[in-house]
Every structure is written in structure tokens, then in C-alpha cells.
Amino acid sequence: MNIILTGFMGVGKTEVGKALADKLKLNFLDTDELIEKTEGRQISEIFDKEGEPYFRDLETEVLKTLGNYDNFVLATGGGIILREENVELLREIGPLILLTAREEIILERVKDTEDRPLLTGDKAQKIKEILSVRNPIYNRVADFIVDTSEITPEQATEEIIKWLKK
């Protein structure tokens, strides 16, 4: 069994993913971490030097390598769903669980981070702009949705497990 967590930055994909993997005795993988290991540098540096299209190519390449593996929870980068090819690859791996949160919650969670290349300048405005493009895609591709605005990662994990048992 594999489980894919999608959603915008700051919604809890890493925390929920680790808790879910622990609870279900699965491995935890993160596409951003896999890219950083492969490239030997931070995501922000990749964005700065090569740009977003190059980074999106790396995401697709990582997904292609995961098709033969099993028993993991995968936390994806927030923009991975922007390419239909990635969505198809993700669907082959496992169900897509969308984690969401209200804009003000996301802002609160990411406001002090400097390693978010898409959030330069007015973070609140950038979050609003990016979500206006991504939310319709997130909602279209999701098999199940959990709003993490008011719940803990453990509660989100329990909701996901309950859904998986149906």
C-alpha cells in the first residue's frame, strides 16, 4: 500500500505523512527531500539557479522512479499536481489525499520561513494568488480531503486511516 499526500505548503504534509507512516508501519518519503538528495542542493537554490520549470522536471523524474516501490507514504511538493503527467504517475502509485488549510492558517505556519522560493515579497498575497490557480486542480485530483486548519497531525492521521479502511 502507498499513500500520496498533496496540498499547498504549510498544510502539514510532512508532519501528517510521518505520523501516518509511523502508525501504518510504512516508510516515509518526501519528493522535495528526494530531489535535494539527488541534486545535492536545496530546493531554493535549484529555483534560483535553474528556475521553476527545471524543478518541475525533477519532480516528474522522481515520480518515475517510485513506480516500482511499495509500502510508503509520499509527501509531495505543493506544485507537483500542476503537470497532468505527474497526476497520472501519482495515481499509479496510490490514492491522493489532499491536505488543506485556510489561507490565514497557512500564512501563520510559513510566515517565518525563508526557504519558500514561491513566497518572496508579500507572502499573504502570494499564497492567495497561488491557491487561486492550484485549488481547482487539488480538488479535482483528490480522492480524499482533510482540512488541517483546526486539527493536529495525529487527528488528520486518524481521519485518513478511517477513510482508508472504507
Helices and strands, in order, run as EHEHHHEHEHHEH
Major sheet strand order: 2-3-1-4-5
- Overall strand count: 5
Mean pLDDT equals: 93
What fold name stands as the CATH topology?
Answer: Rossmann fold
Main beta sheet:
5 strands, parallel
| First-to-last CA distance | 14 Å
Q: Provide the number of structural domains.
A: 1
Tell me the strand percentage band.
Answer: 5-15%
| Uncertain residue ranges | none
Name of the CATH homologous superfamily: P-loop containing nucleotide triphosphate hydrolases
Helicity range: 55-70%
Task: Report Rg.
Answer: 15 Å
Count of DSSP H/I helices? 8
Shape: globular
CATH class: Alpha Beta
Q: Which class of secondary structure composition applies to the elements?
A: alpha/beta
Can you characterise this structure?
The chain is α/β, with parallel strands linked by helices and 166 residues long. The protein has a single domain (2-164), classed as Rossmann fold, CATH 3.40.50. 56% of the residues lie in helices and 13% in strands. The protein has eight helices and five strands, in the order βαβαααβαβααβα.
Short description:
The chain is of the alpha/beta class and 166 residues long. The chain has one domain (2-164): P-loop containing nucleotide triphosphate hydrolases (Rossmann fold, 3-Layer(aba) Sandwich), CATH 3.40.50.
Blueprint (SSEs and pairs):
Blueprint: E1 2-6, H1 13-24, E2 27-30, H2 31-39, H3 43-50, H4 52-66, E3 72-75, H5 84-93, E4 96-100, H6 103-110, H7 123-141, E5 144-147, H8 153-164
Parallel strand pairs: 1-3, 1-4, 2-3, 4-5
Helix pairs in contact: 1-8, 2-4, 3-4, 4-5, 6-7
